[in-house]
Design goal:
The chain is α+β, with helices and mostly antiparallel strands and 150 residues long. 18% of the residues lie in helices and 39% in strands. Strands 1, 2, 3, 4, 5, 6, 7, 8 and 9 form a 9-stranded mixed β-sheet that branches. It is globular. The protein starts with a strand and ends with a helix.
Length: 150
């Protein structure tokens, strides 16, 4: 059983029982390919990123999550804001009964050299995908539109 289930515009999604969860995700791009992680919480592909900690800005969360999930130490100046996805039907539901809607600040980083990547315990694999490969890839529901917008 997955640790988490994600929903987007799904009438069967459970109703949130916790406050809105704010997070940051990143399009990490190398040679026009997008980096995704194979997530250990649901065994689907997703963008690098995660929840904002108390007192963090969106950019600080993006920097921290990138470092934690890939091992990359990137300067703040590399992170270009793309947009905020604030659809109230973007829902995360966890095995412990926690359910919240998600607001995601998306950033883009163009990598200028081949990255040396390191998986965190939150993922089983990191891989760059072409735009064509992304179309049929099993992606976390709450990231599908973000990946499609790439």
């Amino acid at each position: 059983m997955p640790i988490a289930t994600y929903y987007l515009h799904d009438p069967a999604a459970p109703k949130p029982n916790l406050p809105t969860h704010y997070g940051a995700n990143v399009w990490l791009v190398w040679q026009d390919r997008l980096l995704l992680e194979r997530r250990s919480d649901c065994d689907l592909w997703g963008l690098i990123g995660g929840g904002r900690k108390s007192g963090e800005t969106d950019l600080q969360a993006a920097l921290r999550e990138t470092r934690e999930e890939t091992g990359l130490e990137l300067p703040a100046s590399a992170f270009v804001p793309v947009r905020v996805y604030d659809d109230p039907d973007r829902i995360a539901s966890y095995r412990d009964g926690s359910v919240w809607n998600m607001v995601i600040a998306l950033f883009r980083v163009e990598l200028t050299q081949p990255p040396a990547l390191h998986c965190s315990r939150e993922s089983s694999r990191l891989r760059f995908f072409t735009r064509q490969e992304l179309k049929s890839l099993p992606v976390v529901q709450t990231h599908r539109d973000l990946v499609d917008d790439f």
